[in-house]
Amino acid sequence: MRSKLHREQIRARIKSFHVMDFIKDMIFINLGMGIYSLGWAVFMLPNKIVTGGGAGAAAILQYASGFPMQYTLLIVNSVLLLVAWWQLGAKFTLKTLYAVLSLTFYLDWTQRLVGMDPELAKGIFGVHQDVGMSCILGAILNGIGIGMVFMSGGCTGGWDIVASVVNKYKNISIGRVLLYLDLVVIGGSYFLFDSWQTVVYGYITLVVYTFAVDVMINSSKQDIQFTIYTKEYEDIIDIIREETGHTSTLLYGEGGYTHDQTKVVVTIVHKNEQVSILRLIRDTDPDAFVTFHRVEGAFGKGFNVIKP
Fold first, then answer.
1. How far, in Å, CA of 31 to CA of 216, rounded?
2. 197-224: per-residue pLDDT in tens?
3. 216 Cβ partners below 8 Å, 6+ apart?
4. C-alpha span between 213 and 139 (Å, rounded)
5. Domains of the chain by range and CATH?
């Protein structure tokens, strides 16, 4: 067993890394929100393109009433963040609050910037405001921006909070809840524009956006299995359990070349914990050898319920 002093040294090292990780996360959340907002301001809002999510619903309200979508998102998220604090905890809520405030600022700033000289905005991207091309380019920028936010452990609120709460109490994946909500929002746009073309463009935007996010963070993964080869297996097992609540399995192995006896830690975590787990491993044992891969289905305590 490792000494108490050794454990404290590891925790001190983790805390020092947390400061730099936090700064890096904040930078990427801001950059991601800027790219995401640019997609809306340059391509999607001028062409009245709809898409899913809370942002899509807020955009529809802006088209119908002229009320800026960023303020709709801020008002709705203020209520949802109270629910998140109650149901999902303070850590999730505080990081989401920062992303929501950043989103409000960048949506407002980019719309003002584009409004000053719309032709300049078109020229920067070399694109005429063709609706089909605009929905694709806007969706790509949206996906890249949100992907950067997710990779930094952030969340933009809206449907993500609703889906997380539903997933907490029902055996319905977050991705499926988001899909259902997106279909309702985009389909509902028909009653505003009386145009199936708008609905079709909305679904195209949703597909391209989802693909762009997948490219950024492989968001099709619902759960991740880590296999960790390390001499610090006791500390890593304890740190993962303390920081995430997930337990691990300890396997016994033998080196194929050296024939040295070794122990391997295997743990399964949710996809949004991937970056956190990698950082915990790095901070505990920088020399660890780690692999991870997608788990198609994880059932049991802390994951999905086994149903007949």
1. 14
2. 888 888 888 888 878 877 776 544 468 8
3. 143, 144, 146, 147, 148, 150, 151
4. 10
5. 16-217 (no CATH), 221-295 (3.30.70.120)
